[in-house]
Amino acid sequence: MTALRIITRAIDKITGFFGLVAQWSTLILVLLTAEQVVARYLFKSSSIGLQELEWHLFGIIFLLAAANAQQVDGHVRVDIFYGRMGPRAKAWVNVLGVLLAMMPMCGLIAWYGVAFTRQAMVFDNPHPVDFITSGLAGPGSFLYGLLAPVEAFFRQTLLVGEISPDPGGLEARWLIRAAIPLAAVLLLLQAVAMAIRNICIIARVELEPAPETS
After folding, report:
1. How many CB atoms neighbour CB 181 within 10 A?
2. In 110-129, which positions are buried (b, 16+ CB within 10 angstroms) versus exposed (e)?
3. What confidence score (pLDDT) does residue 209 get?
4. Residue 196 has pLDDT above 80, yes or no
5. Which pLDDT tens digit goes with each residue over 15-42?
6. CA distances from 141 to 46, 123, 133, 150, 168 (A)
7. What is the DSSP-derived secondary structure letter of residue 82?
């Protein structure tokens, strides 16, 4: 039982961490939206890149929060019989649901999500290696010599693949696509923890319950 406790606690910590990331992303999204509203209506100015970042954050919040919502049993349940069942009957329903529906679904989403991410990385980034640096400093200057190698490094490792077709849009779209398989893996891990806890209920073995929402 010690091993099962270690596994479930480790999964809960991972899920809780990404749930915290989703929470902070929500705050950033609120502040960013407020800034864009002020900039647009008071200063007649807006940023395409920041607008796209709002959309990306919105997706990341829901994707990364899915496992945390499952952890605290926060997903909406629509049922007729489940609420009237006893603890062991509910545990059987949970285990069967995890094994027959949740795990296969997460596996498919993760599989196709990885392929979807790789697809974005096939595209060539048309921007030169000094695209941002050249707008900040002229070639040959001290600042250019300082920043150009850093930007070149990121363009070889991070800022690759598909970019936004809009001028001033975001690059490295593979990052937002990668959030899809990541969310599926997190949900799959939480399904494992859920299955372990419910199997222990069926077997009448004590194991600490899942964390409750605050």
Report:
1. 20
2. beebbeebeebeeeebeeeb
3. 61
4. yes
5. 999 999 999 999 999 999 999 899 888 8
6. 30, 32, 11, 15, 25
7. G
Residue with tokens 């800034």: 35
Local structure of 13: helix, strand or coil: helix
Beta-carbon contacts of 28 under 8 Å, excluding residues fewer than 6 positions away, are 57
Q: What whole-number distance in Å separates Cα of residue 71 and Cα of residue 50?
A: 32
What is the tens place of the pLDDT at every residue in 168-194? 888 989 999 999 999 999 999 999 999
Per-residue pLDDT, 153: 93
Rounded-to-integer distance, Cα 21 and Cα 175, Å: 15
Check if the beta carbon of residue 214 is closer than 8 Å to that of residue 153: no
CA-to-CA separations, 4 to 15, 49, 202, 210, in angstroms, rounded: 16, 45, 15, 13
Tell me the percentage of the chain whose pLDDT exceeds 70.
95
The pLDDT of residue 1 is 65
